[in-house]
Design brief:
Strands 1-7-6-5-4-3-2 form a seven-stranded antiparallel sheet, sandwiched between helices. The protein starts with a helix and ends in a 13-residue tail after the last helix. It has a single domain (3-245), classed as Alpha-D-Glucose-1,6-Bisphosphate, Chain A, domain 4 (2-Layer Sandwich). By secondary structure, it is an alpha+beta fold. The chain has helices at 3-20, 46-57, 74-81, 84-93, 177-213, 219-225, 230-238, 241-245; strands at residues 61-66, 100-103, 108-112, 117-127, 130-141, 145-160, 163-174. Residues 5-9, 18-29 and 254-258 have low confidence and may be disordered. Helix 1 (3-20) crosses helix 5 (177-213), helix 3 (74-81) crosses helix 5 (177-213) and helix 4 packs across helix 5. 41% of the residues lie in helices and 26% in strands. The longest helix is centred in the C-terminal third of the chain and has 37 residues, at 177-213. The relative contact order is 0.20. It has eight helices and seven strands; from the N terminus they run H-H-E-H-H-E-E-E-E-E-E-H-H-H-H.
Length: 258
């Protein structure tokens, strides 16, 4: 394989896994036609059910990534998982990433990773220690053009003392058959690229959550200045009582009288 072909292969795999980050050890095809962790198929609209089945039955790629332990209370970590637009804004401020996320409602988000990947994500199921997310996106690059696909992502959170251990399992379906076939061939040699890309979201969430509980880090001041919808800001403040106490009722910094 010459240098240019080698580069194209690496770019293809990176592009495919970039689609997964728009969401948030799997090997081989899942056991059944419908993931039992979602409950009844009939509980979802037909188009959503069809998208889930397509990804679940014949995934192009399937990976599991374990993030490092987040040294924060469980409620704090969950708050940043459930307000990804706040997490993304904090990450940009801290120069941890270039993600842009817009909440369309409580369960749907529009996102791009600042590196050519963009799409929509929908939370299908929320449990105390698990989130299941369906995403649809595309990645555009100078070599391969646009690659589109779908992903089903399962985020498991395990509280362990004063820390949280996140685990991300993702199934992705690439629309283009040629790109999908090549990605399957490459995953054995370049799986570390997929794992690294998937792990970025876990790393960013962990670092933002740890910044939030560091009282000397300035998170409360940043949150007071950041133009966020009050309901989203309040969700974060509910998990950070020490931060909430220093802010006024509208989420702004209280001014102490001399």
């Amino acid at each position: 394989m010459n240098h240019r072909s080698h580069l194209k292969c690496r770019v293809l795999l990176a592009a495919a896994t970039a689609l997964l980050t728009l969401a948030t050890g799997a090997s081989g095809a899942p056991a059944g036609p419908w993931p039992s962790l979602l409950g009844s198929r009939e509980a979802f609209p037909p188009d959503v059910s069809a998208a889930v089945e397509r990804v679940w039955i014949e995934p192009t790629l399937s990976r599991t990534v374990h993030g490092r332990s987040a040294r924060v209370p469980f409620d704090v970590y969950v708050a940043f998982v459930d307000t990804p637009e706040v997490t993304a804004a904090a990450a940009r401020f801290r120069k941890l990433g270039s993600y842009e996320i817009q909440a369309l409602d409580d369960d749907r988000y529009r996102a791009n990773d600042g590196d050519g990947a963009r799409g929509l994500a929908q939370v299908l199921r929320r449990e105390p220690r698990r989130r299941v997310i369906l995403s649809r996106g595309e990645h555009t690059g100078p070599i391969l053009g646009t690659i589109s696909g779908s992903a089903l992502t399962i985020l498991d959170l395990e509280p362990r003392g004063d820390a949280v251990n996140p685990r991300l399992t993702t199934y992705v379906y690439i629309d283009d058959r040629v790109a999908a076939a090549l990605a399957r061939l490459l995953i054995t040699n370049f799986g570390f690229l997929a794992d690294r890309k998937l792990g970025e979201g876990l790393r960013v969430t962990t670092e933002v959550a740890e910044w939030a509980v560091d009282r000397s880090g300035g998170f409360c001041e940043w949150l007071a200045r950041e133009p966020l919808p009050p309901v989203r800001r309040d969700r974060v403040l509910a998990a950070l009582p020490s931060c909430a106490a220093s802010l006024g009722p509208n989420g702004t910094r209280q001014i102490q009288s001399p």
